[in-house]
Structure formats: C-alpha cells, structure tokens
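User: what does the whole thing look like in 3D?
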Amino acid sequence: MSEQRDFGRIANAWLDLMPSDAPDRAIAAVLKAVETTPQVRPSFIDGFRRSPTMTRIALVAWALLIAAIGAYALITGAQPPKQTTPSTAPSTAPTAQAGGGALADTLRAEWISFTSENPILENGAGPVSLTIGPSGVDVIAANFGPGLEYPSTTTAIGADQFEVALTRDGRNCRAGDRGTYRWSLSADRSQLTLTSVADSCPKRMTVLERTWARSLTGPTIVGSGVVDSLDPDFAITLPDDTYATRTLDDFVEIASQAGVALMVFKNPQPFVDACSTNQERVPYEPGADAFIATFRANDAFDVSPTEQLTVGGHRTLHVNIGGKANYARCPGEALYLYTPRECLCHFVVGQGDTDSTYLIEVGEDTFMFVVSPINSPNERAIIDSIRIPFDLPVK
Amino acid sequence: MRGDREAFGLLVNATSDRMYAIATRILRDVDLAEDALQSSLITAWRELPRLRDPDRFEAWVRRLLVHACYAEARRRRQWAGNVRALPVDGPAAGDDMLSVADRDALDRAFRRLTVEQRAVFVLHHHIGLPLVEIADTLGIPAGTARSRLHYATRLLRSAIEADMAPVINQGRMA
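Assistant: Here's the predicted 3D structure for the full assembly of 569 residues, as structure tokens:
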C-alpha cells in the first residue's frame, strides 16, 4: 500500500511540473475565432422531427420551392450570373474561389512586409503584417500603429479583385467603409501585390497597397515563402501542402500534412554526453566544421562523409547524423543531440534513426537545416531554394 | 447571437486553465497543448447547439480536448521525423521527493505510452476522475480505461524503480 501511495505522490508531483495557466494569447485567439466561426445547426432530420406542425409545413414549402427552382434551371438551361472578367490577368492563375465570395485559398495566409517611415500613417519604419483569415472572409493588418489595423470583411469580386468592408471604426475611417483591391501573386506565389481600385478609407489604402511576402510561420497551403522568426529572415520553397509551424528560441519547425518536416536551428551547440540528462554543452565554436567534428568524435553517433555545397552563395556542409543503433551506454533511450545556442531546449534522436543535416555558414552564424525524413525526394530542391538573408519587400 | 458569444466567452475563461493543464500533461509540450486547447474550444463553439444538457458542458468539452490531444500527438508524429524537441524544463518541483532522476525516468517512460494511455493516466492522477467517469468522458468501455491505466502505471512505476541503482552505477548523475 505504501508503495502505491508513494508512486501516486511521485506521479502527481511530476504531473504538477507542467504549466497550468492557459496563455492569454490562446484565449484571445479562441474568442477572436469565435467572432467569425458559424455554429452548426442541429441536424435537419432531428429538427424536422421536433418541429411544430407550422414549422414543418414551412420547411416542406421551402423544400418544394428549392426543387421548383432547380427544375426550372434544368428545363431552361439557366446559368448563374457570370462574374466580372478581370481587366488585368494576375501573374499566376488564381485558384477557384471558395463559396460565399471567400478569397482564394492560396491567399489565406499571414503576409509580411517592411514599411518605411510614413507621414500619412504617422509611423516609423519596421516589419508589418497582413492576415487573411483561414476562411478567406476577413483581413486585418498589424504593427502599423494604433487604430491602423483596419479589420475588414472580404468578398471576392471576380478572379483577381476583392472588396473590403471595415468591421469597426479605425483611424480616420468608419465601420462599413468599403474599398476594392486588385491582387496578383508572383509566379511562385510567395509574394502578393495589392493595388487599390478604390477605397473610401484612404489610410487603409496606404496600409494594404504594397507587395507582401508569404510567411511560412503562419498557416498556409503554399510552400513558397519567408521565415521571419529567425534573424536574419530567409526564403525557401517547400512542396505545396498544408503547413503548420512551431518555434522555440532560434528554432523553427515547418511540417506538412504529408509528413515532410524542415527544422532550422541557428548556431547549434552539441551536448557533451548523448546519454546524460544533465545537458552539459560542448563549448560553442562557430562554423560547420567544428560542429561536425564534435559529432565525429562522439561514439554515440554515426556521421556520413561530408559533402561540400554552396547554398545561396554560402559555404554549406552536408552530413547525415544518426543515433547509433543499440548504443550500449543507454540502450533503448533517445540520444541527446544539440540545442540552438540561445535556446533552453534540447533535441534528441532515436537509436538507429538518421537525419539529413545541412550547415550553412552565414557570416559569423551557422544555420542548420534538417530535412526529415532522410532522402526525401524534394530534399535537395528544398535546400537549393534557400535564400538567406532575405530582404522583405519595402514600401 | 451576441449574447451566446459573451456566454461562451465566460465559459472559456472559467474552464481554459483546467483544460490547458490536462493538455500540457497529456502532450508534454506547451505549444501542442495550446493548439489542442484552441482547436477544442473552437469545435465546442461550433458544435454547441448540439449539446443538449448544458450541465454536461465541462465533461463534453473535456472529451473534445482529449480528442484534440490525440490529433496533435498524431500531427507531431507526422512532423518530427527522427529529431525531437523535448519539453523545455518546467518550474522546479514543489515536492522534495521528486528527484531529477525520477523526473527524467518519468519523462522517458511517459513518451513510450500511447497518447490514449497518457490521457487515462492524466485524467485519473491529475484530475482525480474515477475510471467510470474517465470511460464516460472518453467514450470507451470501463474495462478499456482500466487496462490503459494499469499499463501506464506499471510502465511508469517500473521506470522509477529501474532508474535507481543502474543510474548511480553508470555515473549518469552529476
């Protein structure tokens, strides 16, 4: 009995180590999403069974009306009204618009840009962003200054235009103010250019009308874009898929539904002992050679011959680093690998598992790109597409 | 509709800490837990008209949360390939009986459990739910809940016991 009680206490103490307070940003994100998320209606059948007689009659009448309209369309060959043909074709063909006038799914993303000092907006220079919501019916800017977010609903009007309507008062603008914008995507769909056709809210036009780069640290279905969570920013092209990301200090992981993951570490620092939970680090030495030499000297790992490349004009070394199978000092345990120098975190690899590792030297910093799974068919194309540093569009 | 949203906001504020605590313990990762929390609360809002008994809100949303944790755990398996980030160290334990070796042994053993076993263990040990209620929350037979808890407990206990002597012999402690 005492053993049982002690285990319970130990287990509870261990469980209590994890945080229990939901971050405010998570709650705020939920409440914001709820504002634009429709609720399901109870199922039609259930509702029908429970509905009073008059409602049932109304439902039957409504169903008959819909059927009659459908029959009329079949008999007359009537077509729905055509949308306006765009006067200027965008650089890539827009994908089909979602129902209800939502914006194309290729536009739904977080877009980033760099604004220069602007007296109209009364702001200084700096990075700014524009989020087109996941349902494609709303847009909001960020970091331009107080009152310059201009949260707006969006409605597609044709293949390359959309209308915006301000949802609440903003700086010098009133809720309901409308504007129309033409959009075009670059050939690789990594950049979005918005051009004003008209806007009754002139400051919103100054905010929106610019070229934006797709952020890969926000939700996106297009794999070509910019990662701005590390310094400096870098651009990369991943295969199109649905992506999600997670970040730690000097670390970002971008992963697709298809199971291909890209992990990026700035200035990786190996651990001394692959089996030790103490996480003692090898003194940091800059450069790819020192990093690889540390792993070659550690009998817990298998390291392939080094391949030298040039990526984006930078010296790059490629090796495969794997946890030795059946490593005798800590059998069956994951092996401690490395951490970004500025991160209080640690990364491990399973025994017998191997990853493809590219170390790109950018000035005094080393950026390590790990592609998983190893020998992914797109691996070299992904690495070759890296441009670091990457300058955001400026206006 | 405005009133519905305000009422839902109050429910979110009242329950989110408890839900987040469950998610962090099942997933052992604060980022994934945040995603699971958000996803389950948004699902709760969307599906709220189907909840017939308002008194069951917390149990119902807890079930949504555990399923969101299952989805996040699968997503992480898809993602991470071979290299894995372990959770950043949490606050120091308030209980002196929990040594660094215990923590490490439990961390490692817990990662070997399936997410379904983890959920039962957390609901039992952290929330204090009896097995029947866990089974009801998760929509599984009571016998399944019992066997998951038994397996998880056996593995975690044996990890602590196994960690004692060999660790010292191997010189793994500082």
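In plain terms: Chain B is about 75% helix and 0% strand. The two ends of chain B are 59 Å apart (CA to CA).
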